[in-house]
Design brief:
The protein has about 230 residues and is α/β, with parallel strands linked by helices. It folds into two domains: about 120 residues, Rossmann fold (3-Layer(aba) Sandwich), CATH 3.40.50; about 100 residues, Orthogonal Bundle (Arc Repressor Mutant, subunit A). It is about 45% helix and about 20% strand. The chain has nine helices and twelve strands. Strand 7 and strand 8 form a beta hairpin. The longest helix has 18 residues. The radius of gyration is 19 Å and the shape is elongated.
Length: about 230
């Protein structure tokens, strides 16, 4: 899933890109409103995150133009403007959400995942959204969720869904860390076993009933990881 992030503050933009890429999104970044519109036309993103106060064209202006080009693509405003009228104006222009700065990472991730679920509902893809099971775990990609053996439902990122789907598609096979990294991060990311191991560790905490004896994701020493049906 591709996201257009437009923000004129370099540090804020870098932080937004890091969060989104960490979740598993492909991100195209813009530093002003004019660049944001050009990238929207050329990249066809699945949804858009817009700062309001940007050079050349404000987030409001960009949103107006986007709505003329596409009436359905989700748009999220990110702004330090806290007046109610600013929020109302953004929503009246067709924005789907309005997040006030400063915001916490967990809040931002939750809002983005909610937008992603709406994207999946509007533009379903059978191969991408089909539910599957891993032992007693039910994985629901279209909802970015999984139901554990104890009935507890957990939230998952796009990256975590991709890792589980890759292990499920190769059940019984030991997949190397490099293979998982190339498949779940893409060829433009340099393989880093520490990054993968950290993701697996966090994923296990969500889906395994007993992290000390994982039943879904098995470590294969010297190789990588495996799912045994």
């Amino acid at each position: 899933m591709k996201v257009l992030a437009a923000e004129d503050d370099h540090h804020m933009l870098a932080a937004i890109v890091d969060i989104l890429e960490g979740e598993g999104y492909q991100v195209v970044a813009a530093r002003d409103g004019r660049q944001a519109l050009a990238l929207f036309r050329s990249e066809n993103p699945d949804f858009v995150c817009l700062d309001i106060m940007m050079p050349h064209a404000s987030g409001y202006d960009v949103c107006r133009e986007i709505r003329q080009l596409d009436a359905t693509v989700p748009v999220v405003f990110l702004s330090a403007k806290t007046e109610e009228i600013d929020k109302v104006l953004g929503l009246e222009l067709g924005a789907d959400d309005y997040i006030m700065k400063p915001f916490g990472i967990k809040e931002f991730v939750a809002r983005v995942r909610a937008i992603s679920r709406r994207c999946f509902a509007v533009r379903p893809e059978p191969e991408r959204d089909r539910d599957f099971t891993m032992g007693e775990i039910a994985v629901m990609p279209g909802q970015l969720r999984a139901r554990r053996a104890d009935g507890h439902v957990v939230e998952l990122s796009l990256r975590e869904i991709k890792i589980l789907a890759t292990l499920h598609a190769n059940q019984g096979k030991a997949l190397s860390r490099d293979h998982l990294f190339r498949t779940c991060w893409g060829g433009d990311h340099y393989p880093n076993s520490r990054t993968l191991d950290q993701h697996i560790s966090q994923l296990r905490k969500k889906i395994e009933l007993d992290v000390s004896t994982p039943a879904v994701i098995t470590t294969v020493r010297g190789v990588g990881y495996r799912f045994d049906p």
